[in-house]
Amino acid sequence: MAEEIFLNYIGGKWMPARKGRTFENLNPADVRDLIGLFPRSSEEEVNDAVQAAKEAFPSWSSVPAPERAEILLNVGQRLKEKKWEIARELTREMGKILKEAGGDVQEAIDTALYISGEGRRMLGVVTPSELQNKWAMAFRRPVGVCAIITPWNFPTALPMWKIAPALICGNTAVFKPSSFTPKSAAMLVRVFEECGLPPGVLNLIHGLGSEVGDALVQHPDVRLISFTGSTETGRRINLQAAQQLKKISLEMGGKNAIIVLDDADLDLAVEGILWGAFGTTGQRCTATSRLIVQQKIYEALMAKLLDRTKKLVVGNGLNPDVDVGPVINQEQLNKIHHYVEIGIKEGARLLTGGKILTEGDYQYGFFYAPTLFEEVQPNMTIFQEEIFGPVLSISRVSSVEQAIEYANQSRYGLSSSIYTRDIRNAFLSMEKIEAGITYINAPTIGSEVHLPFGGVKETGNGHREGAAWTLLEIFTEWKTIYVDYSQKLQKAQKIEEDRG
Ligand code: NAP
After folding, report:
1. 159 Cα to the center of ligand 1, angstroms
2. What letters, b where the CB count within 10 A reaches 16 and e where it falls short, cover 73-108?
3. What is the pLDDT of residue 497?
């Protein structure tokens, strides 16, 4: 069968990279399955896409926001119709099991529908003036051309988290998806095209981060960068963008912990730990990669957890019997195994897993056995660094205070969770855990689109996605208006007052 060829989308036209270069996209569950050839773009295509977005900006930003919202509403509805078609391709190129891929698309649908409501809201402020016969108010203006740069682990949800608010606010965008999930990105952009988005408002550039990323970040006409990915890449982008004083929002790595206290419902906790640690093969930014367990229930919890972990079925995510799909690529597979070797060397105790799966059909994909380590100390590498795979590091503590102290011993601060029946412990952790999100009696994963999403410390740079009111802060600038109808010069700051 001839391989499928994909194109960039620039100024409303689908086109190849000028030099005709391409890169392959392979199925991580079976590398014999070539999903397609994608344009390996360079700076020239970035320039074309930014130019198209710049040209589209004046007319798109003048379209009344409720009209922009109608397109977004249609996008959400069209995505509903195509949900499982997109989800199947998403599983094929990214690996997560099909029902989770459906969840990924569902999050994109929810975001499009939710954010479309801002077309008739996008609230500004009218406030009393300090002077008579004068009005004081502020309203939101779009920023300009936005660069949208996204990772591979949520190939439709994360782009929509950024594209929907960027467009509803009147911005135009250049979208550079991960080079490991370009087909989901192409399918998503196709839906915007089908729903009548004018040319140039949303442009898609395929290519490698190292080749097109820098050009996009440094392009002088890009005024805003919305990035989700690793802390390493985010830091680099932040430094580059700072030179040109661009607006930048960063959502980066995590090392999320579940705390289980002596008074917890153990069966509930085990379900949550399995879902948090091994859902999406541990490749969520919010994945549970640390488990902190109080002394008294430690042995009982471990027995249940070990038994259930050993029963998880690893395989191709399109197979309905599979619990845990492949990891994204060979590099990630090697990285996970390298961390496991470091864990053993530093003295953690391997309970199960700890190996690359190679027998039978596993040989064609990137599969790793679900892995549990115990006796993990906070100074160990596997406690500190983001592994981004199906590896859970378990530590034992004596009190809720020590559990929270352990949870906070991380340079990241995205998600967190505590299992307890004691309301005092729940509230203590809500206040004291250093993270953007804390779940009570639920695992660290599974956000809802209408609440702020993001993290503290090296996970983010102070912005939040998800909730409309936080997104508007990213994708608009405030404009303040004073209307003086007194028909005389009035001076603020009590300048006319006698000098005492
Ligand atoms: P990544 O390697 O940092 O890549 C993210 C995106 O940046 C990709 O599109 C990548 O392109 C691009 N990129 C790479 N180098 C670049 C450069 N020099 N300039 C501009 N763009 C560049 O991250 P990933 O491996 O795709 O994703 C996993 C990471 O994302 C994990 O750390 C995870 O925690 C984090 N994440 C965070 C959140 C959150 O909301 N906090 C959500 C999901 C994931 P290529 O693919 O072509 O390299």
Report:
1. 12
2. bbbbebbeebbeebbebbbbbbbbbbebbbbbbbbb
3. 80
